[in-house]
Each structure stands twice: as C-alpha cells, then as structure tokens.
Amino acid sequence: MIHSDIFQDNPKLSIFLPIYYTLWADSVMTTTESKEVEALIHRQYWLSAEEKEWLFEQFNPSNPPKPKLLKNLRKEIKSIPIEQESLTAIGVALAQKYQSDVSYPQDVMADFEFTEQALGLLGKEASYSFKSGHETITNVQHAEQNFNVSALTALLDGSHAELIHRVKTVISDHAFAFREFESLQDQREQTLLWCQELAKQGFGAWAFPKFADGKDDMEGYFAIMETLSYHDLSMVIKFGVQFGLWGMSIFFLGTEKHHRKYLKDVGSLKLPGCFAMTETGHGSNVRGLETTATYNHEKKTFTIHTPNPDARKEYIGNAALHGQKATVFAKLIIDGEDFGVNAFIVPLRDAEGNLVSGVRIEDCGRKMGLNGVDNGVIYFDQVDIPQEDMLDRFSSVNEAGEFESPISSDNRRFFTMLGTLVGGRIGIPRSALAATKTGLTIAIRHGEKRKQFGPEGGEEAPILNYRMHQRRLMPPLATSYALHFGLRYLTDRFLKRSEEDAQEIEALAAGLKAYTTWFTTATLQECREACGGKGYLSENRIDALKNDTDVYTTFEGDNVVLMQLVAKNRLTEFRQEFSDMNMFTIFNYVTHQAKTSITEKNPLIVRNTDKEHLLDMDFHLSAFRYRERAILTSAARRIKRHIDEGMDSFDAFNVVQHHLLNVGQAYIERIILEEFQAAVKETADEGIKAALTQLCQLFALYTIEKNRGWYLEQGYMEGVKTKAIRKEVNQLCWEVRKNALALTDAFAIPESCIAAPIARRNRGSEGKVFKATDEHR
Amino acid sequence: MIHSDIFQDNPKLSIFLPIYYTLWADSVMTTTESKEVEALIHRQYWLSAEEKEWLFEQFNPSNPPKPKLLKNLRKEIKSIPIEQESLTAIGVALAQKYQSDVSYPQDVMADFEFTEQALGLLGKEASYSFKSGHETITNVQHAEQNFNVSALTALLDGSHAELIHRVKTVISDHAFAFREFESLQDQREQTLLWCQELAKQGFGAWAFPKFADGKDDMEGYFAIMETLSYHDLSMVIKFGVQFGLWGMSIFFLGTEKHHRKYLKDVGSLKLPGCFAMTETGHGSNVRGLETTATYNHEKKTFTIHTPNPDARKEYIGNAALHGQKATVFAKLIIDGEDFGVNAFIVPLRDAEGNLVSGVRIEDCGRKMGLNGVDNGVIYFDQVDIPQEDMLDRFSSVNEAGEFESPISSDNRRFFTMLGTLVGGRIGIPRSALAATKTGLTIAIRHGEKRKQFGPEGGEEAPILNYRMHQRRLMPPLATSYALHFGLRYLTDRFLKRSEEDAQEIEALAAGLKAYTTWFTTATLQECREACGGKGYLSENRIDALKNDTDVYTTFEGDNVVLMQLVAKNRLTEFRQEFSDMNMFTIFNYVTHQAKTSITEKNPLIVRNTDKEHLLDMDFHLSAFRYRERAILTSAARRIKRHIDEGMDSFDAFNVVQHHLLNVGQAYIERIILEEFQAAVKETADEGIKAALTQLCQLFALYTIEKNRGWYLEQGYMEGVKTKAIRKEVNQLCWEVRKNALALTDAFAIPESCIAAPIARRNRGSEGKVFKATDEHR
C-alpha cells in the first residue's frame, strides 16, 4: 500500500505520486493505462528491482487504494504551492519537499511528461484539480452594458411612448397583480374585471371615433394591445375579442348608423359581444360557411339559422358567458337565391345575461391556455333580426328587397370584407412578440444568475456562458429585435393603406403573423427548456406564456394556410411585374433567368470567408433577396410544368405546397431584414447603433445558416463559406450575450409583469422600468 | 349592361360570355386584363363597330355588373352540359344553344384560346367552376390497409404481449376513466388512488424480488411503465417516483437488509417515498450536492442536514403530500472529513402524514403539467437516522467508524451509484414515445376525417391529403416506429449489461433519452397545430400530452447536458479503439483520415439520384455511419487544436459544444437506423415488411434531409442528390399516408385512453383494440 510515510522514507519515488493520484481519483484505471505506467516504471533505470516491484503493485488495477488514503494523498499534494503545469513537475516539487536536494535527470523528466500525455492526462488540466481559483474564459464572461438602455427603450417605443407608459402604469397597479385562480369560473371573471378596468381607462375605445368616446387612433390601439401583452394573455385576447373583433367588425363592416348605435357601448364594455365567423365545419375555408340569413320581405327582417351541426359557430370568444350580441357571418338568402357571406348583428343574451330565444350556446371548456376567455359554440334556431342590423358597408338589401353591392362577385365581396379586418393579423403578432420578449427576459436573467459546472478547481459558470445556451437564446433575442422593426413596418403600411396595395398588405400581415407566431412558439419552448425545472413551475410564467400563445399559430388564420396565401400573392405580384408580357413570355423569361442565374454567382464570393464580408449587411441583403427571388421563380416554374404535363392545378399546388411555404418565409425574412437594416442605419446613437448592428448581423447570419442547405444546393455558397458563417454565428452569440441583459432591460417590461421569481433582479429596480420612457417624454 | 336577353338576340356574341363571367366573378378585373380583352375585341373582324363598342363597355373595369346579373349568367352557363375544357369552347356551346347553326372560323377560335391563356385563365381550371364533381388526385386519396394490423401489434409488443394486454385492461377500467379535476388537491388524490390500484394489481413490485411480492422482472417493469403512458402521465410519473426512483434506489444502492425491510411496503405503496437527489443549487451538476450526513461515533447515527438554502432538495416527487421516507443523497462527513455523496434512507412523515421533527417541506405548487404529482422542496434540520439506513452497496461505515468502499475515488463511486439508476433514462423515453404515439393517433385520425378546401366544383379534401400536413405527421410516424426498435435495443442492452459495457449503455441511455424526449416535444407540438383549434381544447388530450411530457427533456438529466455526456463518452470510446496507439499517434491518424476521406467520396455516388439508390438501405446506413464518424473525428481534432493553441480544456469543450451535440445526435441516429433496419430484415410477413420498409426509408431519408446542410458542406452529396432526396421524402410521405391510420391502429392504444372526441372512430371499435394481442396469445 502506498502511504505517504513510505514516500517520506523514499522521497525520490514521489515523482509517481501525482500520476498515481490522478489515475485512481477520477476515472476507472484501465488495463491500457496500467500498461502504460508499467512500461514507464520498467524504463526507470534509476530504480531498484524492489522499488519497481512495489510500484507495479500500486498501479495494479485490481488493487485500489482505500478512499481515506486517496484523500490523504490529495492533501499531501495540495500542501505544496501548485504553480506547475504538469503532473511530473508537481511530483518533483513534492519529492523536494521531503528532501530538498532530490533531482531527476532531464531524460527521466521527459519520459514522465511523455507518459502523462500518452495517458491523456493533459498536465495543465490535471494539475488544476489541485489548485483553487482556476479561471477560464468561460466562467469569467459576464454581463456588460455598452449603450444607454433608456435611449434604446425610447427608440423601440417610438411615437407612442407616452401611451405605452400609461398602459404599463395601469397594468402595474395592484388590481392587476397576478394570482392563482381557484377555478375556470374564477379566472374568467377576473379576466372580465381586468377588461372592464381597461375599458374604464379608455383603452377599449381608443381606435373608435370621437363620438364613441374614442381617440380615433388605430396605431395607439395596436400599441395598447402590444403593451397589455406583457400582462396576462387571456386578458389581451378577451380585450381583442371585445374591442378588436367585435368592435372593429362594426366599425369596418357597418356604416355610421351602426357606429352611432353600438360603438360607445362596445368601447365601454357595457355591451360585450362576439365575432362569430368560424364554424365547426369551416375553419380555414370560411368561404364555405353555411349559417343562413334569410330575408323576409314582409317583416323586413333576416332570419339567422344554423342548418346543420357543422354550421354551428365554434370557438367564439365571449360567447360562453358574457357576450350579449355577435357579428355573425352568414349566407344571405333572398327568395331562395344565395348572395354569399355577409355580416349581421345578432342578439345572444339580454342585459341580464339570459339567452335570447332561439340561441343555444355550449361552453368549449378547458383549453391548453387562454382559460380566462370564455369560448363557446353557438347554434341559431330561426332567430329574427331587424333589417338595419345587417352590416351594410359592402352590401345591402334595398327598399324593394333586392340585393345591392358595388362588388359584383360574392367571393370578391367576402374577401374584401375580410380584408378590412386584417388588423387582427397585426395585433396578434405584436402580442406574440411581447410575450416572447417576456419569455426571453426571464430566461436570460435566469441564465445570468444560474451557475452550473465549471473548470476543475474553479468557480461554476453562469449557464448563459455556455455556447449551447447562447445558441438557444441569442438568435431569438436578435430575431425579436428584427421582428420589432418588421411589425412596425407592417403597422405603418396598414395605417397608410390604399385600395391599390390592400392585397400586398394582406399578404404581408398574413406572412408576418405566421412567421412571428411560429417564432414565438419555438422561442418560448427554448425558454422553458433553458430554465430547466424552474421553467416548468407555473410561478415562473413560461407555462402561461407558452400555453396562452400556442393557439396564436392557429387563430386569425392557420399558419400553414396563411403562408400559402402569401405565396399565392407573391406569384400574382410576380406575374404583375411583367404586366406587358403575356403568360407565355413570362414563363419563357423565368426559364431563361433560371438558366443564367448560375453564371451570376461569382466564384470568389461563393467561397469568400473574410470576416468583413460575412458581417457585411449588403451581403446579407443580397443573399436574402436572391433566395426570395429564386424560390419564387422556381415555384412558378414547377407549377407551370405540372400543369403543362396535364396535372390539375389543385394537385399542382398541393405537390409544391412545401415549396410554397418557403416562398412565404423567404419573402417575410427579406422584409424583416430590410426593415431592421434601415432602422440600424437611421440610428444616430453610437452605442445603440453598435448593439443593433450586432443583433442585425446575428439575425441575418443565423437565418442564412438555418437555410444553408438551400444555399449550398443552389451553389450560392460553398461549404467553406457556410462553415465560416456558423463560426461567425457562434462568435456573434458570444458577443451579444454580453449585452443580453441590457437588451432585455431595454424592452422595459414592468417588473410586476415579469413576476417570475427566477427573474428577480438583485438590485432594487422595481421603479426603474419606466425610467426610459419617463426620460423620453 | 350585358343581359342574357341581348345574347339571345345576338347569339354569336356569347363566345365572350364565359370570359366575361370568369373575369368578373373571382378576381379584381385589372387594367391589364381589360386591355387584353380590348385587344381581342379589336381583332374580331366579324363584329360590327357597334357590337365592339358595346363589348368594350362591358369589360370596362369601372362598370361592374350587378351581383344578381352575375348569378344569372352563371346559371345560364351551367344550363348547358359542360364537357369542354376551355372557356372558348363553352362560349361556342352557349352560342349554339341560342342558335344551333352559329359557328366561328378556326382563327377566331385560336385567337380566343390564346387570350384565355394570356389572361392566365387556365381554361380547364376555369371551366371546373361550372362543373360539379371535379375530382383530383389530392381530394380522392384515402386510407388503405396493406398489412395485418394485429400481426404488427404483436410484433411491436414482443414477448411481454400478455402483460401489456393486462395493463391495458386495467387502465381501460371505469375506475381509470379520465375526468376533469376540481383542483390541484383533487388531481393529486386521484393520481394517488390510481397508483394504489396499480400497486394492488402487482405492477408496482414487478421488478422486485419474489420475497417482496415481485416478479423479479425488470423488462416487465419497463413494459408496464410504457403501457401506462397511454393513460394519464401524472399517474405514470408518480408510479415511476414510487416504484422506480424510490424503490429502485433501495434495490440498487441498498443491500439485502434494506430489500427485506422496505421493498414489500414500497411495492404495495404502503410506504410512499421519495428520491431526493436534486438540490436548488445543484441540478445538472449533482457532484456538487451540499446536503450533509455527518457520522456520530457514539450514537452510531448519521445527522442529515441542509447547510444553506441552495442545498435544499427541490422538485422532489411525492414530497409535498404523500412521501413518508426518502432516499437522500448527501455528503458523508466523518470526523470532519468529506467522503463524497452517498445515499441514506431518511424519514419525512409518520404513517399518519405528520412531518418528522427537523423536516420542513414546501409545495412546488402548480406546474406546466404533471399536476397530479406532488413535488416539494425539502429542508433537513439535523435529522438523525440509524446507521443501518445508509444504503451500503457501494460504501459503508465499519464498526470502528471508518469509511469503507471498494471504490477509492469519491467521484467514481458516486458515478457508479448513478450508473445503477440508469433505468430511469430508459423508462422516460419509453413513456415519452407512448405519449407521442397517442398524439399521432389523434392527429392522424383527425387529419383523415377533417376536410377543408378542395378543387373548384369538387369535394373538400381530407387535410391529411395535403403535402404539408403529411410532412408534419408522416416523418414523426416513421420516427416513432424507428424509436420503438431503438428503445427495445436499449432495454435489451441494459438487461444484459456487464461492468465492461456499463459506460457505453449509460451513454446510449442518455442519448436515447435526450433524442426521444426532444422528438416527443416537437411532435406533440406538430400534432397540436395539425389539429387546429380542436387541438387546443383540453378534451382532445394533446394539451395534457404536450404539457405533461414537456419536462421530460429536463428531468432524468437535462438533454443538452446528456448529449454532451454522450459526446464525451464517444470521444473516450474513440480513443479506446486505438488503445495501442498513444495520443500523439491517434491525433496524427485522425488528421490523416480527415485528409483522405475526401477521396473516398465517389463522384458517381455524390450525384446519384436513382430512385433505387436513394431507397437503398445500405446507402442510408453508410451515410449515417459516415456522418457519425466524421463528426466525431472533427470534434476530437478541434478540441486537440484548441488545447494545442493554449486554450483551457474547459473553454475548448465549450467552444465546440454545439458540435458535441451533433456528435451525440449522429451516434444515436446511427443506432436507431441499425436497429430499425435489423427489425425490418427479421420480419417475415410480407405486408408488414413492406410497410416497415417504407417507414424505415422515410426515417432514413428524412434524417438525411434534415442534415443535408452538413452532407453538402462535406461534399458527401451534391445539390442534385439532396434535392432528389427531398422529392423522395415527399413521395414517401404520400405513400405512408395511405397506411397511416392502420399504422396507428397497430399501436393498439386503448380507445378509453385516446379519449379525444376528434379521434373517435366511426365504426364501433371500442372492443377492437385488444384484438391484436388477444390473437397473439
């Protein structure tokens, strides 16, 4: 048995001691290792046969030391000052401790050091286990703040900073404190109370005309909805159902008589209502709605009716409990003739909450999330409504009982009506992004505080310093900033829309809705996992954020369907670009272009891995644009080819469906990048500009990396370049991580809304969060 | 105004009628379109100036027809039998209806048909809108069943079919019917009741020795846990905590005295207990646990103590309400000396449920899911336990109060102890896969029944016929089958493990746990979205499946950490393959190999797009193996290079962390494919073999497609080949979709467990689900 006494009796053997300790202490001593050491011992010409025999015995794998002995050895080794960077050197120091004049020939030292390496004991590493305070790049990285956070908040908030501040103040009030709900009933009532409070603050009517106590400020309405989304999302959706869907359907599909009759009570929530479009059998394909509104010439009324169970209205928010009226979409029938889907205001309950005769409502019950919203199923059994309750902006029944409309086609009229309601597809992604920002704030704060693992003998590292953790959270942080500017652009375009660009904006909204909500779902999933078990506890909020937003990918249009709508719009726009060519010419052009595009790829660029080039914003935008155009072109070509080969166009579109999703995605990504780059360019503040530039580069390169299979297939990049991009993404993640905390601070989410115990700041920052906007005013 | 009367007065103009209708009916009439038609009118030498003028007026974009007129035109067109495949031909037929002898010169007909195309009105398509019963490939695809479902079930169930059948019978009993819970308390009590019922059936003790009323059948225990996972997952996890974690810790870390003292009561659930390892500050890095167990020489007891809040035991299942004892992991201290983490049985509550003195427990409260499991936080304040309650298989304190262990190193001993508990990393992925199978069964049945959109004039298509829907659900279906065989292999290896392959099996379990649970999370997300709003309603089960399994990626080891563990094990194995080389030689070999591998890529193969080649299982396996080896080699090389350049090894591993995840993933994917291919080869039944072959091909090609960026970067494939693979994946999705319903039927999940209203079978199949296993017995 090795015993420190023996070494003290025979100090020169101590050179074996650190290797001995290390081999026994941390891994299973394998036969290979034991043989390696055996050979080393054999080679030691300065040892006696007895000493060698004794050493062989010590390194015999079936002769482990007692635990206690191993501990003593460790203490022995640690008792000398560890400066050395190899186990051999430590061994020598140890020997000299026992007998100061011990020394070993140069070749012996070299032999030991060679064996150390052969054993895979990287000397420096192994020696760290004896040191304390071992520091590495990984465990010392920490948060920095290289820009003025308040100024960035002001930049993000834009012109509605004051309103945003007001909304934050309201939802930070004690009345809005999060609490656990006893039951579904309890949660729904609380959600209603919160909405009533918001209505009282004037937020509900914000977009409505002044005569309805509104501010006539649609942009403000979106800012309100977005800011509310830092708080409970059931509240946001109930708010959106009442003031957005129910209110806006009256506002956009009705005429002044409806506005004057209803909007004031809608805005004050005196008149809770519903938006009853979706039917059980008709979710995405709403053109096929079957509810009927039959005109009665004598009584000048419409009879609303559910002809079969598939035609019942489903998932209708506000229906199960609170809704008193609903905008109902139904096929208008006059004298047996079908005039397509039109909109009608139909009573559901009286002011006391009793159901109107002929109306049957079922509760949708528990959902994955948004349980504060009372969704219901509605059946109508011959419910009569007066003629004036037809929302008649786009169609009406005249005095003679004839249908009138400036739009000839039923389908076109219906889609025109739907087009006016595109605001929902702006409010939802903005709400989704706010929820994502909250999730990222929680996960990043946790990643900063939570330490786990570390170098041998050193402090544990914050988990945000691990590359995978950065890869999980930094690209989403960059994408959140990118989407912030993308959604601002969408809002601007919507507010300034005209008849000419209506369809383009509808496609933009559809695409950004789909892109953002998928991003939200994926990011909150990463946040949950990045917070480990803590992320699974409801108190840390990611549960609610994830589950409440999960349906965002479905409502206001299923994302897959929406992305196809975007693709079809792009194909149409593509065609219109060539308006003076006929279809044959266009397809010839397309084929030609595809053939020549290969020559446009400069061989120097496809292999260029210079850092300067890779970080160049023009390179990013060119790559995005190339992808967008090439995918669109090839989609058009494929559809054409399938149809030429005799395929039904319905089948042809189905065959390329996967490709069409990429058309939509590439288009949206290009828009987002353009807007983010423009925002960066406009920024004057140097610190903020630098931070945003990094985020913009990360968004761009991460997106290219995500699509690298495509770029490689196209020959637009070669493997050396995509590999260099991956490395650059890793590096940008590492850089952005430093600012990460400050970048989430700039979202300026009220601490009372973040609420998660794992995200609590150490410094008392309760009052701090509004500072940014305060200063900005 | 165009009026059908006018056409009847001047029938030859009717050739314009279908174009007129089509342009006004479905899209906005653009200036371009109007100009195109204007030119057409101009060219008609057979028209008078007045007739032309009148026609110009009709096609004026600012002069839309009345809705009613458009409807009449449609009726007019539909009144003739529509056989024609162009609008021109329909127009001619219409003219001939009014005046049978009307005819048009050949050049006029050609001119009209050219204009139709120039307008983008693909005649055949446009004409469909006048037909009824338009069928396409897309809307007629339907479910087939090309193999014997019961025989496939028998193949999946394997040797434990009878036990699986018994478990299914139990959980289909009325006592196990799903119900909505009033409160957290209600759910937890129900979960306990279910577990008690399972214990009564003997399932809890199944793996225990006969003297503890067990069957000594570990394989059976896994089959039970997997089958139970078709039912409520809180029940499964509480079952796993009690019988797996608490029971198995006694079984594997204790000795016979503990087995005889405790196992019977554990198996019967008379003694509910906990597995208390994780601490607040020590989740993944459990080596750093801080709870202490201090030995008292005089009393021969251990004092269990929580020295600081970070050392409290956290997320401990069964702790908040029911646990009476716990296996507690704590650092053993004897005479001030730390002997590393050991395991002790510590009392928490008496049989009446009163907390033992010195024990404080807090409730973890609501979680994202698994709310039937009462997780708690435990603090120990100097709790004494008798010496015999140290679990002493791997270490003990002897009569003299000295520490004894056959394993010298504290760390090695601890990891050896953990290694015996690897069964948890088998039970969890098997449970996850069962939940995934349920989710896929629900989503595929829904996709088969739910119809939305369709060709003009045709029936709506089942959404499962859409390519994107197939892409969402078919690769996961294939992967589920693949994982079934992968997890069976893992179980077999575990049951036959020896000391030599223990580490390999630990890595295999860690990797398959991470791979499967990530797959589950992603797949259930797809299932939720694929079921649209219906997927969001809790009654359709995906809510619970997703939220309950969400933490599977975290517990039993965080997936990111586990995958790194796998990678490190692979690096070690890699090194051991070259056991007679020293490290220098190995790295030289690696560098050499990397340089030559490029020449191994046959230029014919990197571009081969033959279907036969792409579907060839040997090609698949070669590609998987190449990837595994190349990634492993390059990871080793990179780490070596960083360290050579002076980087700390902790930093070096962090820099390549993203790469290490791929090492783990590539290894696991190769294992899964090997096992799936072996299973296919062993299958005798032709129908089943064909079905499994398609699934295996889909799994392989989908996985290659997912990694195509990597294959392209490596030059292992060229773009033409990855594109051909994508096409083949689409085609396989289309083929597998036909069998999809039958393939989920083969999972033979009890209908009472599927439970989702959207997944209800039309045929009365309540009794059917056990048929497969019945026949097999």
From TrEMBL, chains A, B:
Entry cofactors: FAD
Keyword Lipid metabolism: yes
GO MF term list: acyl-CoA oxidase activity; FAD binding; fatty acid binding
Record-linked InterPro entries: ACOX_C_alpha1 (IPR055060), Acyl-CoA_Oxase/DH_mid-dom (IPR006091), Acyl-CoA_Oxase/DH_mid-dom_sf (IPR046373), Acyl-CoA_oxidase (IPR012258), Acyl-CoA_oxidase_C (IPR002655), AcylCo_DH-like_C (IPR036250), AcylCoA_DH/ox_N (IPR013786), AcylCoA_DH/ox_N_sf (IPR037069)
Boundaries of every Acyl-CoA oxidase C-terminal domain copy: 618-762
Subcellular location: Peroxisome
Domain Acyl-CoA oxidase/dehydrogenase middle: 274-383
BP GO annotations: fatty acid beta-oxidation using acyl-CoA oxidase; lipid homeostasis
Residue intervals of the Acyl-CoA dehydrogenase/oxidase N-terminal domain: 192-266
Location of the Acyl-CoA oxidase C-alpha1 domain: 419-568
E.C. no: 1.3.3.6
Keywords assigned: FAD, Fatty acid metabolism, Flavoprotein, Lipid metabolism, Oxidoreductase, Peroxisome
Keyword Transmembrane helix: no
Family: Belongs to the acyl-CoA oxidase family.
Protein name according to UniProt: acyl-CoA oxidase
